């Protein structure tokens, strides 16, 4: 069965080693021409940092404008299409989840929190520490002195902390635990949505009751777990419809729906379009 085009680190990285981490300058990739990438997904974290330039970036069907001092951070599995104009400069970074302190819980939470937001537009006062971290990462990656990977990870921590400070967060006692549980729930949604669609299933994986899970999502996001499950189903359906040529019956089957008519009704209820109409709309 046709899959969404996936780009892996071994097919995209220009320089080996560094635990799968890679950083490149956008100008070296564009060669003075526009960069155009059609809809695809990655199996690694993908970060695009724009110093100056323009273009457009669609991430999971949300449209973002590319501008100076903007940052785009994508989680593994998200789909995107990209158009950068020729004069755009900046950095492209990519790395697997296993690179950035995989065994340290605070680091995992820091990265998950940053990657929960796909686009950041930095104010002038927010930019200098991010620029310094990027410049240091670039130098460490290409000079490759002793313990350069640890230096890269340390500067990534500075960068992600800078991004997280741009988010409006509830800093009251206990919020860090709720945030960690929320990020874990959202990660489970991305990896289990084809087989798990009941609130109780996710609550059990998080060692929570269904009531506790509901209270957590409504406190942090203002949404019920059921609503978040439906949103993830619709998002994955959109990914499959636009990034592959699968029949609607195949998309429904991939998402665990034996009743195709029910899947079509569900999709239409939450998008306003049938799956085929949604596909035609995107393709003009």
UniProtKB/TrEMBL annotation:
Keywords: DNA-binding, Transcription, Transcription regulation. The keyword DNA-binding applies. GO terms for molecular function: DNA-binding transcription factor activity; sequence-specific DNA binding. Residues 183-281 form the HTH araC/xylS-type domain. The keyword DNA repair does not apply. It comes from the Bacteria. This is AraC family transcriptional regulator.
């Amino acid at each position: 069965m046709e899959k969404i085009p996936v780009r892996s680190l071994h097919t995209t990285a220009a320089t080996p080693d560094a635990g799968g981490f890679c950083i490149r300058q956008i100008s070296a990739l564009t060669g003075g021409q526009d960069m155009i990438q059609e809809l695809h997904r990655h199996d690694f974290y993908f970060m695009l940092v724009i110093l100056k330039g323009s273009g457009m970036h669609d991430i999971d069907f949300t449209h973002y404008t590319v501008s100076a001092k903007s940052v785009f951070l994508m989680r593994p599995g998200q789909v995107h299409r990209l158009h950068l104009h020729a004069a755009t400069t900046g950095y492209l970074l990519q790395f697997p989840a296993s690179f950035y302190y995989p065994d340290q819980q605070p680091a995992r939470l820091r990265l998950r929190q940053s990657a929960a937001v796909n686009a950041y537009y930095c104010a002038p006062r927010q930019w200098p520490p991010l620029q310094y971290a990027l410049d240091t990462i670039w130098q460490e990656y290409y000079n490759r002195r002793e313990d350069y990977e640890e230096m890269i990870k340390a500067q990534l921590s500075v960068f992600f902390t800078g991004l997280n400070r741009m988010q409006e967060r509830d800093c009251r006692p206990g919020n860090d635990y709720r945030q960690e549980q929320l990020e874990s729930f959202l990660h489970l949604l991305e990896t289990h949505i084809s087989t798990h669609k009941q609130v109780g299933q996710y609550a059990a994986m998080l060692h929570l009751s269904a009531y506790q899970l509901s209270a957590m999502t409504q406190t942090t996001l203002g949404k019920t777990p059921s609503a978040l499950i439906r949103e993830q189903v619709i998002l994955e359906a959109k990914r499959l419809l636009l990034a592959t040529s699968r029949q609607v019956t195949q998309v429904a089957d991939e998402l665990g729906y034996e009743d195709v008519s029910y899947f079509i009704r569900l999709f239409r209820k939450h998008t306003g379009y049938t799956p085929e109409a949604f596909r035609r709309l995107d393709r003009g």
